[in-house]
Amino acid sequence: MDFFDIVKTRQSVRVFAPKPVEPDKLQAMLEAAELAPSAGNRQAYEIYVVRDPSRKAALRKAALDQESVSAAPVALVFCADPERSAQRYGERGAHRYSLQDATIACTFAMLAATALGLDSVWVGAFDDEAVRRAIGASADKVPVAILPVGYGAEKPGRRPRRPLAELVREVGG
Question: pTM to 2 decimals?
Answer without folding.
Answer: 0.96
